[in-house]
Design brief:
mainly alpha, 2 domains, two-stranded antiparallel sheet, 6 helices, globular, disordered N terminus
Length: 179
């Protein structure tokens, strides 16, 4: 594998053929900022307060405050067709992605229950043909931002599955240093 390096001031290791004026560089190994699979974090101070506020004031309230986030999936083939914004399908997926990420920061049992309930309710809305969107059969995956809705839905469900299957790692505490 070769990486095309865009810094032309670095001399090439060899004199390989140029492509688009850039010099291919040998693979230098993995990036130093690889993801920590199953990592868990705990934040205190201002960041910890903000995470807690997000959980309490948004993530634990959103599905009950906006039942349409899931109801639109149940009503997708109703006549007349619901009038939805083109990006409506993204809402539940984006909500779940943020809630699942917050679980890595908090391990809040209330949020765990909420996520499990929303995931179960969302999966229950899946059409017989596998469709996970809120739009009627005639325009499924053809109009609106339906593919993006599916992307966010599948990313959320895959993130949830990874979170369930990945054993927790020891917590890493991020706190202000004393002094």
């Amino acid at each position: 594998m070769q990486i095309i390096y865009t810094d032309k001031t670095t001399p090439p290791v060899d004199k390989p053929a140029k492509r688009n004026g850039l010099q291919p560089q040998p693979d230098r190994g993995s990036l130093p900022f690889d993801s920590l699979s199953g990592a868990q974090f705990e934040f205190t101070g201002l960041v910890g307060e903000r995470v807690e506020a997000n959980v309490n004031n948004w993530l634990l309230r959103a599905p009950q405050a906006n039942p349409g986030m899931l109801e639109m999936f149940r009503l997708r083939d109703r006549r007349p067709a619901p009038q939805l914004v083109p990006w409506a399908a993204e809402f539940v997926g984006k909500y779940l992605i943020s809630a699942i990420q917050a679980l890595r920061l908090t391990e809040d049992s209330r949020l765990q229950t909420q996520v499990s309930n929303v995931v179960a309710a969302f999966i229950a809305t899946q059409a017989e043909d596998g469709y996970l969107g809120p739009f009627p059969k005639g325009i499924r995956l053809l109009k609106n931002w339906d593919l993006w809705g599916h992307y966010h839905a599948l990313e959320a469900l895959a993130s949830r599955q990874r979170a369930i299957l990945t054993p927790p790692r020891p917590s890493r505490r991020a706190a202000p240093s004393p002094g």
